Amino acid sequence: MPGMRDFMDDFFALLQPRGMQSRPEMLAFIDSEIGVTDKKVMDLGAVRQDGQQFRSASLRDFFAFLSGTEYLCGHNILHHDLRYISPQGGWPSGMGFIDTLYLSPLLFPRNPYHSLLKDDKLQSDELNNPLNDALKAQKLFYDEVNAFRALSPRRQAIYCGLLYPCREFRGFFDYLGCSPTLPNLPEAIRQEFAGRFCQSLDLRVLVEQLPLELAYALALIGEGEELLPEVVELCRRAKAEGWDKPRLLRAAAQIQGVYVPSLYDVDYKEDGTVRAITARDGAPEKVVKRVVHHMDRAYYPAKTIVPSTEIVHDRVTLEVFRGCIRGCRFCQAGYVYRPVRCRSREQLARRPLPTPATRR
């Protein structure tokens, strides 16, 4: 449909950040479908910045389509696609790689699955379509660029200073022309987040040893229905008994699903990748995510906060299950919420449904 293609080309041109020069074949978005057992390439999809599209299982045609490209972008491209597709002799030394997977939770912390809905899977029974996924990666990338540009200049410089050494982020910053420039990164962090964390915190250690964890500021891993009350109760106990912060952190690390970055020493290789992670002070070697095993016991609100629109008020939302048996590689939610767990039909039937009197 030429008309639709022209519309999409104009649409993505509007999404491209202002002030960024566009070179037709500078950037390409790719996706691949790999056999589960034989690990062979089953299908390939790509779209260039000039709007040209590609879909075929031919590696020769795929690499010819990408000729002249300076940056390859995809969702989980570094640890999935590039493991199975590579031209003879390897990629050019100057080729940059951008992975939207790791940028999404950083730039959309309240909605880490931003723009990842594979709506074509809901509309047809077609097998995974790598061209559609490449187009979704394209839109997500421009959303991420615009979200990054919307940050304060100091916040941009902080993220670049922390994450540029990581392979998962370097291509993104190179594409935007960003490089570490802050002479005193800990002081910049203190100024940017003044009043939002303990001022006695030794940021220098975190910047040097745990830059990725500091950027994401993640602590609780997994599902929070059981985990969060345990952490809150521990904090109450620590406050009542006058614990110091190190003691609280050591105790919190003993709760399954709690990751305390300061209790892990990270050794990096020269290329910025991790060589080894060593736990200390009794912290577990591996942090295991917290999972609610009995869904019938898990909390689910009967009184929900909804907007005053008829389409919402005329519907009822029930959590039937978590996880997914299909295991689509592109779907974060399908993996994050594993294993598959269902609420019983009897429990769902007994659950009180929202009414106009209970809505807030």
Could you describe the 3D structure shown?
This protein folds into 3 domains: 149 residues, 2-Layer Sandwich (Nucleotidyltransferase, domain 5), CATH 3.30.420.10; 70 residues, no CATH class; 56 residues, no CATH class. Helix content is 41%, strand content 12%. A 5-stranded mixed sheet has the order 3-2-1-4-5, with helices on both faces. The N terminus is likely disordered.
Question: Which key terms come to mind for this protein?
Answer:
alpha/beta; disordered N terminus
| Rg on CA atoms, Å | 23 Å
Q: Quote the distance from N terminus to C terminus.
A: 46 Å
Name the CATH superfamily assignment of the largest domain: Ribonuclease H-like superfamily/Ribonuclease H
SS content category:
alpha/beta
What gross morphology would you assign? globular
Please work out how many helical segments DSSP would assign. Answer: 16
Oligomer: single chain
Largest sheet: 5 strands, mixed
Portion of residues in beta strands equals 5-15%
- Give the ordered list of helices and strands: HEEEHEHEHHHHHHHHHHEEHEHEH
Overall mean pLDDT stands at 79
Strand numbers in spatial order across the main sheet: 3-2-1-4-5
CATH level-3 fold name of the largest domain? Nucleotidyltransferase, domain 5
What is the total number of structural domains? 3
Portion of residues within helices: 40-55%
In the predicted model, the low-confidence regions spanning at least 5 consecutive residues are 1-25, 118-125
**Name of the CATH class of the largest domain:** Alpha Beta
